[in-house]
Amino acid sequence: MKSALASWGLGAFEGDAVQIMSEIASNAARLCEGRHIRVWISRIDQGVDMCVWDDHPGRPVIQQPHQFCTSGRGLILVQAFASGGCGWFELYEGKVVWARIAIDHGYMLGAARRAGCPIVGPLRHVNRPGAQLHA
């Protein structure tokens, strides 16, 4: 993920992206009862999308942890860092949890040019189907 962001000239967003991806990927690894997990990051017109698919059909649920609990805040953090929104949808026999860091398109074009990875034409817009994360 870090190398993808750097290659797109978007290394400035690495901290937020790492926080988001670590939360949604670790939730899938720790909580899903399935055996398969897939992770990907995409550069789109609105910014950067991070997605994690797992083969467990259960939906993600935002916890309301007690102030002294040491876990249960992952999806709350995802919502805080995902300036372009977050949610989930069913896919095949599992689900995708996604989060987006919103980035100004002009900034993205300039960053791509400076990184030597120009954007040729508009990037494809992605509307995510399905539900938002809920408490």
Identify the overall geometry.
globular
Q: Percent range for helical residues?
A: 25-40%
- Compute the average pLDDT: 83
Give a count of the beta strands, DSSP E runs of length 2 or more. Answer: 4
DSSP strand (E) fraction?
15-25%
What is the number of helical segments per DSSP (H or I, 4+ residues)? Answer: 4
Helix-strand string: HHEEHEEH
Distance between the termini: 28 Å
Biggest pleated sheet: 4 strands, antiparallel
What Rg, in angstroms, do the CA atoms define?
A: 15 Å
Structural class: alpha+beta
Strands of the widest sheet, in order across it, are: 1-2-4-3
> Uncertain segments of ≥5 residues (pLDDT<50)?
none
Note down, in words, how this protein is organized:
With 135 residues, the chain is an alpha+beta fold. The chain is 31% helix and 23% strand. The protein has four helices and four strands, in the order H-H-E-E-H-E-E-H. The chain has helices at residues 2-7, 14-31, 74-81, 105-114; strands spanning 37-44, 47-54, 86-91, 94-102. The radius of gyration is 15 Å and the shape is globular. The relative contact order is 0.23. The mean pLDDT is 83.
